[in-house]
Amino acid sequence: MDDQTLLAAIGAGFVIGASAIVLAAAPLAGLVTGHGWASSTKSLPETIILTVSRGPGAVYDPAPPTWAFWLVVALLLVLLIVAVALLLRAFGGRKPHLGGARWGGKKTELEMAVPEKPEERPDRITAGRGQHSKKIVAVIERSGSAIAFGPPGSAKTTGLLLGNAAEWQGPCVLTTTKAADLEAIYNSRRALGPVWVIAPAGLPGGRTTAHWSPVDYARDADSAERMAEWMADAAQKHYDPRAEPWIAQARAILAGLLLAAHISKGGIRAFREWLALGKDAVDHVRAILEPDYPEVAMDYAQPWLKLHEDGAGSVQFTLNVVAAVYRNKDVRVVAERTDFSPEQLLDENGTVCLVASPSNAERYGPLFTSIIASIIHAAEDRFEKTGKPLEKALGCFIDEAGNALRYPKLPTTLTTGRGIGIAMLTIWHDLAQLASRVGQDGARTVISASTLRMLLPGLADDNTLRYFNYIFSKEQTERPTHSTGPSGSSTSTGIVETDLLPVDKLREIPTFTAIVQYFNLPPIRANMRLTWRDEDLRAWLARPLPPVSLDKAAAPALEAHHG
């Protein structure tokens, strides 16, 4: 349709509508004023023209009052305008979907909507408020996991991590880079169960930190082997399958050292000393292990006795990375004893907060990984024993996941966690950071198994932007083409494919906004629920609670004191 035809159609529609109003107004005005039904003996064109130019008395008999006629015309015109507006609102903005990818609208947001009250949406990780419905949008299924990509400054902590941790109704473990963030959620978590705060570098105001020791965890051969595996895996700064043979040998040595330190009651001090001695500690450690754990003693000693010099050097390098964590005095103080167990966390609906500044997050990564892994294992073990998912799902909210969680089993945990009752929210700077921890294949599994995927403001990594540009695919749209010729101007439309989320739009996500895609639903835009802005979240954090202070000696997070 060319421009002239379109204008002609609009004009014809206006003339027909106005004529219908004029024809209906006079009879209606006559009935309303008590003059009876007015009729005209003229033709329709004459009736319309004479009524408008001379008034209804020139055409109709009995003639209605002129004032009543024009009042009815005005009312009918208003009704027509309202009806057209409603039709345009209901149907005018809805162009048929031409195919390809598409944005989710209010309908998608309502599918993802959850109740406002946290008690009525247990075990659900939230993403924010849908921009169309203003409803809280979240994972639909119980214990579904989520992943977010956002650099520092993207409001990932105040807009995503803290709100989810504060509202989580089950046991919880979280990492954060700012001790001050705990002020926002401490009382909220304390109302649900005990809270243990582990901050090797200390807490503001001279507050004390809780304690946890990998040596105390290694009570027998099996637990020592598990802890050794987590510690050895966390020693890798980057995922490298070629290092697996040396990591396996390091696990055997670490298991022996952990168990020997536990048996001898030497604690973390003895563990660190034997790590530093390396091969020179073999005879002493083996003597401690052999009476009760001869197989552990043999596995511990074998790498030192059988490996060639280069192999032993590679193993020692891994051990040195583990030892470096405990060279720090603050870490040794934290690891000198244990104030809680993973089972206690689950039984008492507790919370573990792991705090490390950005400069310390990488250094404390192996310690934090061991704590998180032990809690995840406790949940998995309980599921294996009962055959039922946890009554209250375990929430793992991991900020700075690239530094705080060096856990190669993350893809497996995310794949199986929903059935066990483990929900994880992991926050990464970009795709490269995720791949450096679990490899390229593992990264794809992590994204796939995290059914709620979020992109936060400030993304700049080219690979991340292009990956999600590809994932969100292309939409089919109509593109108008204007042309001018001897017969006038005309407009035609054709269907073309365009990126649903172009790279520049991904790079320019507005502040405090998240692009959210859940499972198999189209993506939506959500406003992040900031702890200092979202009214219902602020009300939840400020709800009346028994007075609890981080300085209170009886508070579980502070039961352990420095030195």
UniProtKB/TrEMBL annotation:
GO cellular component entries: plasma membrane
Subcellular location field: Cell membrane
Pfam families: T4SS-DNA_transf (PF02534)
Main localization of the protein described in the UniProt heading: membrane
Segments traversing the membrane: 67-88
Source taxon at top rank: Bacteria
Keywords for this protein: Cell membrane, Membrane, Plasmid, Transmembrane, Transmembrane helix
Membrane topology: Multi-pass membrane protein
Family matches, as PANTHER family: CONJUGATIVE TRANSFER: DNA TRANSPORT
Family recorded in the similarity comment: Belongs to the VirD4/TraG family.
Protein known as: Type IV secretory system conjugative DNA transfer family protein
Organism: Streptomyces xanthii
The organism's taxonomic lineage, starting at the top: Bacteria, Bacillati, Actinomycetota, Actinomycetes, Kitasatosporales
